[in-house]
Design brief:
Blueprint lengths: L13 E11 L4 E9 L3 E6 L8 E6 L9 E13 L2 E11 L1
Antiparallel strand pairs: 1-2, 1-4, 2-3, 3-6, 4-5, 5-6
Length: 96
């Protein structure tokens, strides 16, 4: 199902607003805010950019602050500056 007439994705994206902890493949850690989620990808806002194809693990705190509900392995597909932060789109590689 397409989410928009101009949208090329095959899966619907769900708008969410949950905190995440990002750990990059270089061992860097930072907090971010997940903005949307689908079965194959997600988008989050961070205060720093990430490189195209960079791998990372996200810890998602969806139900209560401080409680990790799931871990997600991602690969960055896009990184766009937006209002003093970065909006990062990523492909979901694995979910635990």
């Amino acid at each position: 199902m397409l989410t928009d007439a101009g949208e090329q994705r095959l899966w619907s994206r769900f708008q969410i607003d949950v905190p995440i902890q990002v750990t990059t493949d270089l061992g860097e850690q930072f907090s971010a805010q997940c903005l949307d989620w689908s079965s194959h990808g997600l988008k989050f806002r961070a205060q720093r950019p990430m490189a195209f194809t960079q791998a990372a693990r996200l810890q998602v705190e969806a139900t209560q602050p401080g409680i990790v509900d799931l871990e997600v392995a991602i690969e960055v597909q896009r990184c766009d500056p937006e209002e003093g932060s970065w909006v990062i789109g990523a492909h979901v590689v694995d979910i635990r």
